[in-house]
Protein 1
Amino acid sequence: MDAIADDTRTFFIDLCRRYRTNHEFLEGIYHILFGNRELGFPGTKTAQRRQLTNFAPLVPHMIMAKPDVVDGAIPQGRQPQMMDDLEDLIIPFVISEDDGNKEDENMMVAPNFFFYNRLEDKDGSAGSRAALHCGALGARAMHEIQCYGRAKSYDKMAYTYVAVLMTNHMTIYAIHPIESQAPNRETDYQMTQIKAFQFGKLDEFKSGIAAFRNLREHARSVRRRLFVNLERNSDDTSDDSNDSGGNGGGYKNNSNSDDQETSSSDSIGDSEDSENSTGQGTSASNQRESDPPRESSPPTKRVKIRLWPKP
């Protein structure tokens, strides 16, 4: 981050403004934000501007999410039975009917990092709604893998993250599943704002870029640990019903955390259940008849994550 000067900040803001009339400036924006032009990331499958067409909707007739950038795991070597059982919950893109779950260059699994470019939107709330939609789909995917073959549990950790870019600021969020209080639903999803970075000052601009890149790297580490734990649990099933599946590497939704700079949150759930959260609720359903009975989750270790340098 030391190489980023104030000229870079003003140039970035200028590119964001020019993008509204000329989308060719997007390459320069991404180069500064991601640190490279191709957006590639080791051990990660990245896709741009693809609808998540293979995901089952959170509620009937819900529009398909379409993030500007999404990171997920490379499917090679993943458990084939799990891929079949959870196909429409963990694989975001359409799979050919002829090839079934045949692995191809466009396939990814367990997407848990999403980026939205909202440079053309004047309504900032549109970005947060898109973040909640995509984030809930990603959180559902991670939770389904985490609990695969075992009773559902909730460790109150976030393993899914979304960044929303506006012209003069960027906001990053964490999304995690919560046990629904509604009798007709099993799971709801809550989104917590980690921090909003204003680009008016160089230090905060640099902190925002650092947080974005670090969060992307952290999301990759979370995916890796998730599959390591899955393989470990498949080798030893005797303690599955007593293991929450949490690996201690997620973002803890705790307002006392030093790294949670804000406390605002939204939840995907029924509005009558929003008394237990600090945000507005919208209706969603994640009930599956095939799910086993839920068990209470054991206590999990709280882990703090420092995404950007302290001032």
Protein 2
Amino acid sequence: MPRQRQMPTRAPALFLLVGMVLGLCLASTQPAPVAFSLTFALFLAGFSYYFAKRGSSLWLLSFITATSLTAWAYGTLRLPMTPSSDFLKLPAREAFLQFEVERILQERNQYGRLSGIANVIDANTTSRLQPGAKIFFRVDLEEAGTVHLLRGSVIQATGVLSPIPLKLEPDSFEAYLKDIGIHYQFERTSEHQLLRPPGSFDQFCQRMNLHFQHYLRLGAPEKHELDSIYIAMLLGRKAELNNDQKDRFRMTGTMHFFAISGLHIGVIATVIAQFLILVRVPRKISPFIGLPLLYLYLNP
């Protein structure tokens, strides 16, 4: 009986992953000369192709180096830089900022307060903030009437800029901000000015989110606030829960159900895929329907 020839085990994506990890780790500690890195990475990619055609093992070294340089440049452009420890030891100070809202963490509550994450566009010199830095902000919209801040809004305001302390409790909210590259908190002390409203797509996503909330509230019994659990669990809006509900889920260790995670995304993606199969949508067309719906779900 002829012996079957075993195919060699190959994992080409592993080489790409190694270069990406090296580049992003380097970008978190040292900014890259972006133009030089990308140019040199392009040359190395050409050398990698040349060596691969000739059967030389040097293609792997060239490929990983090119990938690392590309990820280093990408990380420099996208990842927030960690400020100097001397800056983080400075006391809170007044700052005049222009920033673009990236994410709303807490919707406007009964006191008119809203909080979120934003990217700095411009800042005064004494703030020591660079354009592109991320901040956690709180603004009071009580006197703003019907003004609502959405993702993509550009705000100008004067307030108190406070560095997040270096030593924090591991499970604290400030530690979470540190983990995602945020080192400053900004609280508005004067009336803010809306320089640019959010784009049409961001407004469309907000309208769709409001429609989702309306559908989840349909048929809910009155005076039981059960609809808030559906909204908090399926849309990740924990602010909809009252204090009693938060305490109940926190005591039972199930508060993680109300955070948008891979489990939520997987369940929603499976439901959408099964629904498209049920209505007999062709497989070649269903990704073009399902993926936009999933994207709308992930964009509050």
Protein 3
Amino acid sequence: MPDLLLELRSEEIPARMQRKAAGDLKKLVTDGLVEAGLTYEAATEYWTPRRLALDIRGLTARSKDVREERKGPRTDAPEKAIEGFLRGAGLASIDQAEVRSDPKKGDFYVAVIATPGRDAEAIIAEIMPGIIRNFPWPKSMRWGKASAEPGALRWVRPLQSILCTFGPETEETRVVDFEVDGIRAGNETRGHRFHAPDAFTVRRFDDYAAGLEKAKVILDAERRKRIIVEDARNLAFANGLELVEDEGLAEEVSGLVEWPVVLMGEFEAEFLEIPDDVTRLTIKTNQKCFVTRKDGALSNRFILVANIEARDGGKEIAYGNGKVVRARLSDALYFWHTDQADLPDLDQLKGSADTFGLDLARPLDQRMARLDHLGVTFHARLGTQGERVERIAKLAEMLAPIVGADAALARRAALLAKADLQTEVVQEFPEVQGAMGRTYAALQGEDPAVAAAIEEHYKPQGPSDAVPGAPVSIAVALADKLDTLTGFWAIDEKPTGSKDPYALRRAALGIIRIVAENG
């Protein structure tokens, strides 16, 4: 049976869109083929930064002939009923209908509509332009002179070529002939932008994948990811280090390169003063690089993934990445030091400090006082963050004896739980909220139970996340989630089947898990 190969080659597709786009392409094409009366044995989607591809095996060469019978009115029915039947069945005359008999209902008309099958090639050529034109990109663009024309093609990045071949494995394949905005389908593609930019001819999937590999493009995204992780592990091990693995980063980086080449960069050891989470996020977020450990502690070497085999072995690439990482870490180090220093407006914060019983000699207390002083809104109908913190603190005090926690420590932890929202590091890297609060609390000598509760009161953040187990952490976590639930329920901002913008389901499930798993 024939196979179908489709490739849509473009400028670089954002990594976050690639996997879903390939899945969408598979669904749209296979659904269109099935609706047209074709069947297939298997379909596999592929993607790289510059292409979406689809391999469909065992596609029927022609759709089946279809014979449909449409029952009509009785032969003695009114003329208007018969005319309506003819229009609906697409018949020109009642003579084209058959007369059938039923012992109970009498004679009636039946329209027999025969639809001949169609060649798969014609069906493919018919459905492809619509699929490409109406592709569900979350964001798309127009380009070139044609972009000014009404109905111009939109794609995530400029579409450069379409490859579409069809035919049995034992015969020469044919190009499926169709065109979209001047881009005509053919049997050519191109490999790596720098290593192999010339076009080459493709017949079917096997020589397509092999040709791309020869042209320095690994088509299979999962294989690219495996190569990245395995080569990164090996490079780290060869240098006496351990790779800090990150599945999400590996997924993203595999969508940035077609030919992954793993290299190692480094930065000055003085930057290791910065908390590990901040260093890791700085390097991950800004440079899409992996960090490494040595003897359990973060090292000053990182792993980067290039998309080219450089003549100098990647030295210049690693050096350039190192320069950028140093600049980013310099900023992070500045934020880290600034957060441990006094705020310049302490006199203005005395009122808030008195309200909450805060010690303005302590940096984290200063940030909590500023959070209240600035009147940062939590929700227009639920007050400020300061007002919310006071509610959480009172509730944590009430819950403390029930969960076996010290009430004073529970209140103190609740008062400082949101203070790190006013730190420079958290404003730059929101992902470390809670964790940075714990670090800053420990630095200013807070009770370990208080410091732990500042981080753990956000838990659990998902079904796989652990729940807090220490009494003070339990009290603050329950208070935080109960305040969220009761507040939004009170103003009738409840989740629906499709929307939960305030993560109320997660809060409710968190309460249930905390109670259930802590007895």
Protein 4
Amino acid sequence: MTARRVALVMAGAFAVYAVLVAWRGWDFIATGEPLAIGLGLAVLVLPLVAGWLVWREVSFGFHMQELGERIEMVDERSMEE
């Protein structure tokens, strides 16, 4: 399995996780109890933080791939000279 497919599978798993956690957070908020509302808001923040972390990791991977391609091009040019 290529790295790109693994990243897509993990992003899909994260999407399912985010929906389920957000749903549970909304259930907490809907109870109307002050403590449950606080917990629900905290639970709703978790998918946001996790999403940001996944986005940063994927972005880092793409930048590293681009950097590797640039280094490879420079190495090829230096070998030609």
